[in-house]
């Protein structure tokens, strides 16, 4: 395989694999920006994958599958929101329990679906004309699918909402200083519910992408820890959708490369890098002023109660 | 003309403010200023009385309602989100007709226009965490102006400003007033009242004592009104001969949490067998002084010696081992561990040494016995020694703190607001306990905002103003007016 | 959230141990009820299923033995976690610490060349140190740089997983069978003795029981335990009392990480006798132990009971797979439900909810 072809194939696969990472990260960014830590992403993703697959299989419509995947993911996340925001329970434990539930449930329900082929997956697209552009053409416009493009479009949209609209300001204030937001008449609980739901829906869609587009099939545990990478990515992205995009493709590349570079570099090393990077980022950001500029939302994972000393 | 006669439940305050004036509310802490303003801003509801705005009676049920009446408030502790920009903070919580989208440029322009009009220099695109305190305050003012406030309530605005920033603020206020706004300015600083206000209402202990035209009064008169001329009831105190010097504080400098100087060369001595009362309006360095003396805050300069041994910048543990007791202001937050039992709280400082521990192990039985004795001696009312402290009443919590701190016969006791929030019976008991310690020969530094308490308990009185000792006078000869003046920063010569 | 008029919610001033017990048990029962629905959906009578589980897990000698051997790592890790949780250190990284302990033990067993009698003790020590070191890193990051402990411990899990994967596929690779990689088998002297005919590596069990007792004494009767409790309940007061949050946090993570490491040694030297893939060594013990510790309300002695309880559940997973043909994953559903109901039930511990038909 020629050097150039090798790179093109790698990048093309990175784009494909990075898409669910990006989707999940965008969602988790919104969730954490409002102050809620959702460790249940893995569970929501796999439930999304399962429900998307079965829906697509039964109805023959993969897009319906994606929709259902998103709804299921969102429903799961609302449970987490209820526990974290209304019951003010420990968010870490709540998220973990949902991951266990999701993994278990999908494993139980998914038995018997393994090995079934999906006759109608989301089809690969080749954009005529654009795909002829040298180098970029084959990467971006050949063999990808609509969801990949939609995801890319989602980035500037979500960025704009977060940083340039009233809603975004509200969300950020709730995550950084819920007491201030509350005193200005903002309903902190409602904002957190909304953002958690967004995170859940996107996680579900990400899972659906895996089972209906990327590798159309159902296997137990098929998300293989992607949810945890999403958590790492959210930090790596400094809770910014634009950085999230770069990070998702970067981490995606590491994953793809871990296979393709196997003869030369141990795959485990590359696979472990996302997690190490996340810790590194946290260390860098912990220095003073950088913290206030780019650090985690100040009220992350802290339940808010009005007026409690 | 805007008048607000407002009557607050137990207090009965009448306040009338004229349109287009700067009206100061003057009083010590606890005098009721903040409560009154919270009512005006819709955070509290008055139990009795009414608010009349422009001749019409109104009900202000929430901050949003207050805003609809064009009343804006600039809080003492800013309500800003540091990671957002100025413009974003100004706009936070507003539901303007433009829907979810924010026309950023337009907003910034509108803010700049307002800012320019009133001389408030601030960059709408700057992030709040980058701003100085003075600039942040301007953002708070802009918030109110953006919402078209015509009455501005400012709660102790200068407490966090440097002198230059204060000047800037005052010129801003004058500009605002020229444009027709009305300003209610809450403060305890007499200088400012004289400089900026048109009229001033003095509050004391929840009552409005008087309203005067600023031009017709002076600082001395105001101080007198603020502090009162009641005959102070003096407790029966034993004549105790002062002993040796126990504590020498020499030229101590320390910063507060914001990084501003809180103690600027504080110097004084404390003797065995005396109570040295520290008088002063809250925020003049008392908290930082207590923290430096108990090892909870670093001093940047200066010396502190306890019976000749250096005590400055030692750890809290070392200082405690040296025989210093600390009765803190926040008894629930740092003075006790609310979820732990009475028994455990009582050994919070002594658990490390015998008889409460031998080697690695705690001696629970010794702790139990200690707890039983303490409950008896200090009359701590609790169902058992295994009751969690958080269930107890304020008075009993304080008794636990005292029992713990005073066991072991400390040489020096730092008591900060020891009777704050306690009922009459508990208050009396605490005072008696402190007096007994004094009789025993301990040196006590009594920090309190209750001037009456200072005057009845102390042997000598020290007045702290802006981190400096204004003067130390013998309690017997003390006159309350003089103390009031010193608390307001007026040197004796100025009279 | 406003409560409707007929619902009275008031904060409880004190909570009796009895109340906590009742509420915890209710939570578990609620979870079991919901899980019963799953059985019903699969056409299996829940009562039949639960009965089978109990019989399989406890009814026979072999079944009981399997249950006990599953309880061992849960016990060790759970005890460590109760200490960490008491100091409010959210150690989600027990999984990784367990694996690090396993790696260290394998390293000693295969490569240290120590004389036989020293092998097992050395393995335990190495495992403890390895797990403890893995746990100390997030602890230092939290205390010195204020970095969130949940995230760091979580991330370190995966770094440990990949480290182990690399070892068994790379430098420590032994004979491979059917595509599964593992190291050589440990020398006989590095095998922890087991009870006859079972896989219960009893020295580790004894160690676990002992440590539970020791930790209980530590928490209730020693100075360090006192300091841990104060730091966990009120860090401000701890500072006021001169307790070093730094030293206390390091201590708890030393314990939590070290104990998880010991669990790893037990698994690898007592059951598998070689280093396998991480998912074979620990089937989520590190995560399940969180529930074990939570249910035990941070009481090290209670962990003995709760670890056994969850061991029954895991054994039950085997039973339902074999006897009922239901997927093993169902126990993850169990665990998730139990954990969820547990934390949901804490509302009822903090607040008393009653029905009131008087107008408020």
Principal-axes geometry of chain B comes out as globular
CATH class of the largest domain in chain B: Alpha Beta
Which percent range fits the helix content of chain A?
A: over 70%
| CATH-derived architecture of the largest domain in chain B | 3-Layer(aba) Sandwich
Report low-confidence residues of chain B grouped into runs of 5 or more: 5-10
Tell me the CATH topology of chain A.
ABC transporter involved in vitamin B12 uptake, BtuC
Helix run count of chain A: 13
Q: Whole-number radius of gyration of chain A?
A: 19 Å
CATH homology group of the largest domain in chain B? P-loop containing nucleotide triphosphate hydrolases
Secondary-structure-derived class of chain B: alpha/beta
Structural Rg of chain B:
25 Å
**What is the end-to-end distance of chain B?**
37 Å
As for the number of domains of chain B, it is 2
* Helical content of chain B (DSSP H or I, runs of 4+): 25-40%
- Classify the secondary structure makeup of chain A into a structural class: mainly alpha
Q: Determine the strand fraction of chain A and express it as a percent band.
A: under 5%
Strand order of the largest sheet of chain A: 1-2
């Amino acid at each position: 395989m020629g050097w150039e072809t090798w790179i093109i194939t790698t990048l093309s696969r990175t784009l494909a694999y990075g898409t669910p990472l990006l989707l999940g990260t965008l969602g988790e960014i919104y969730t954490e920006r409002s102050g809620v830590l959702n460790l249940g992403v893995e569970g929501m993703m796999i439930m999304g994958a399962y429900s998307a697959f079965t829906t697509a299989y039964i109805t023959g419509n993969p897009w319906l599958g994606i929709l259902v995947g998103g709804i299921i993911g969102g429903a799961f996340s609302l449970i987490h929101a209820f526990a974290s925001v209304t019951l003010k329970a420990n968010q870490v434990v709540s998220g973990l329990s949902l991951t266990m539930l999701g993994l278990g449930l999908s494993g139980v329900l998914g038995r018997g679906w393994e090995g079934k082929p999906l006759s109608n997956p989301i089809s690969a697209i080749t954009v005529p004309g654009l795909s002829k552009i040298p180098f970029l053409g084959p990467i971006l416009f050949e063999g990808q699918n609509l969801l990949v493009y939609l995801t890319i479009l989602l980035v500037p949209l979500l960025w704009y909402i977060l940083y340039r609209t009233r809603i975004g300001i509200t969300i950020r204030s709730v995550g950084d200083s819920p007491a201030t937001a509350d005193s200005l008449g903002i309903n902190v609980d409602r904002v957190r519910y909304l953002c958690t739901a967004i995170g859940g829906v996107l996680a579900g869609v990400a899972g659906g992408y895996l089972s209906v587009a990327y590798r159309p099939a159902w296997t137990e545990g098929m998300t293989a820890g992607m949810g945890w990478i999403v958590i790492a990515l959210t930090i790596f992205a400094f809770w910014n959708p634009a950085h999230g995009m770069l990070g998702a493709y970067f981490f995606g590349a590491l994953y793809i490369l871990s296979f393709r570079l196997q003869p030369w570099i141990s795959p485990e090393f590359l696979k472990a890098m996302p997690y190490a990077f996340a810790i590194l980022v946290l260390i860098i950001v912990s220095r003073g002023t950088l913290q206030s500029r780019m650090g985690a939302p100040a009220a992350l994972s802290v339940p808010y109660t009005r007026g409690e000393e | 003309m805007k008048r607000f006669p407002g009557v607050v439940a137990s207090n009965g305050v009448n306040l009338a403010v004229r349109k287009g004036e700067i009206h100061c509310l003057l009083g010590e802490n606890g005098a009721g200023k903040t409560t009154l303003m919270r009512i005006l801003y819709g955070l509290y509801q008055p139990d009795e009385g009414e608010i009349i705005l422009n001749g019409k009676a109104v009900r202000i049920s929430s901050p949003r309602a207050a805003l609809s009446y064009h009343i804006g408030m600039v809080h003492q502790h800013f309500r800003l989100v540091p990671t957002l920009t100025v413009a974003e903070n100004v706009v936070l919580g507003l539901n303007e007709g433009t829907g979810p989208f924010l026309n950023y440029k337009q907003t910034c322009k509108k803010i700049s226009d307002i800012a320019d009009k009133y001389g408030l220099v601030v960059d709408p695109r700057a992030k709040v965490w980058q701003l100085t305190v003075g600039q942040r305050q301007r953002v708070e003012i802009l918030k109110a102006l953006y919402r078209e406030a015509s009455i501005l309530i400012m709660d102790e605005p200068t407490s966090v400003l440097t002198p230059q920033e204060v000047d800037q603020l005052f010129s801003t206020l004058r500009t605002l007033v020229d444009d027709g706004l009305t300003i209610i300015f809450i403060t305890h600083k007499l200088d400012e009242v004289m400089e900026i206000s048109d009229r001033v209402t003095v509050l004391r202990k929840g009552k409005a004592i008087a309203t005067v035209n600023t031009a017709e009064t002076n600082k001395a008169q105001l101080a007198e009104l603020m502090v009162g001329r009641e005959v102070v009831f003096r407790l029966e105190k034993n004549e105790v001969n002062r002993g040796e010097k126990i504590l020498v504080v020499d030229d101590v400098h320390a910063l507060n949490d914001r990084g501003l100087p809180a103690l600027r060369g504080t110097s004084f001595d404390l003797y065995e067998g005396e109570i040295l009362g520290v008088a002063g309006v809250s925020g003049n360095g008392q908290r930082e002084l207590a923290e430096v003396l108990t090892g909870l805050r670093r001093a940047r300069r200066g010396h502190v010696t306890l019976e000749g041994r250096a005590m400055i910048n030692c750890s809290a543990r070392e200082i405690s081992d040296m025989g210093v007791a600390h009765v803190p202001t926040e008894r629930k937050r740092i003075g006790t561990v609310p979820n732990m039992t009475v028994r455990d709280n009582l050994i919070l400082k002594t658990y490390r040494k015998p008889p409460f521990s031998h080697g690695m192990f705690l001696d629970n039985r010794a702790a139990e016995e200690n707890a039983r004795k303490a409950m008896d001696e200090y009359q701590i009312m609790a169902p058992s020694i295994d009751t969690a402290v958080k269930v107890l009443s304020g008075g009993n919590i304080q008794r636990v703190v005292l029992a713990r701190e005073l066991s072991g016969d400390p040489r020096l006791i730092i008591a900060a607001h020891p009777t704050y929030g306690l009922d009459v019976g508990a208050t009396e008991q605490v005072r008696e306990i402190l007096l007994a310690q004094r009789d025993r020969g301990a040196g006590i530094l009594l920090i309190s905002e209750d001037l009456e308490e200072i005057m009845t308990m102390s042997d000598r009185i020290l007045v702290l103003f802006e981190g400096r000792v204004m003067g130390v006078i013998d309690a017997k000869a003390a006159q309350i007016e003089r103390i009031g003046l010193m608390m307001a920063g007026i040197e004796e010569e100025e009279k | 959230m406003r409560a409707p008029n007929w619902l009275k919610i008031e904060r409880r001033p004190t909570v009796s141990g009895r109340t906590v017990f009742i509420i915890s048990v209710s939570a578990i029962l609620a979870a079991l009820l919901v899980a019963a629905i799953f059985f019903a959906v699969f056409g299996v009578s829940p009562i039949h299923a639960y009965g089978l589980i109990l019989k399989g897990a406890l009814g026979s000698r072999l079944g009981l033995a399997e249950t006990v051997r599953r309880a061992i790592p849960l016990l060790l890790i759970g005890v460590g976690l109760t200490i960490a949780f008491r100091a409010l250190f959210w150690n989600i990284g027990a999984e990784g610490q367990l694996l690090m302990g396993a790696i260290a033990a394998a390293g000693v067993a295969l490569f240290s060349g120590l004389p036989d009698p020293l092998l097992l003790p050395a393995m335990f020590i190495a495992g403890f140190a390895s797990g403890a070191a893995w746990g100390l890193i997030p602890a230092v990051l939290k205390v010195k740089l204020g970095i969130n402990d949940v995230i760091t411990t979580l991330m370190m899990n995966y770094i440990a997983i990949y480290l182990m994967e690399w070892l068994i596929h790379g430098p420590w690779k032994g004979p491979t069978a059917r595509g599964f990689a593992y190291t050589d088998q440990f020398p006989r002297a590095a095998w922890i003795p087991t009870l006859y005919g079972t896989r219960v590596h009893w020295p580790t069990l004894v160690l676990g029981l002992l440590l539970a007792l020791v930790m209980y004494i530590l928490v209730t009767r020693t100075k360090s335990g006192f300091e841990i409790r104060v730091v966990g309940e009120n860090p401000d007061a701890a500072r006021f009392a001169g307790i070093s949050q730094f030293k206390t946090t390091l201590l708890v993570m030393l314990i939590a990480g070290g104990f998880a490491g010991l669990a790893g040694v037990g698994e690898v030297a007592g059951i598998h006798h070689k280093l396998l893939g991480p998912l074979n060594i620990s089937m989520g013990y590190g995560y399940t132990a969180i529930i074990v510790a939570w249910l035990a309300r941070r009481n090290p002695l209670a962990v003995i009971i709760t670890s056994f309880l969850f061991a029954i559940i895991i054994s039950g997973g085997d039973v339902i797979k074999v006897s009922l043909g239901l997927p093993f994953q169902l126990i993850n559903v169990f665990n998730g439900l139990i954990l969820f109901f547990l934390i949901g039930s804490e509302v009822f511990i903090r607040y008393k909810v009653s029905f009131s038909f008087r107008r408020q």
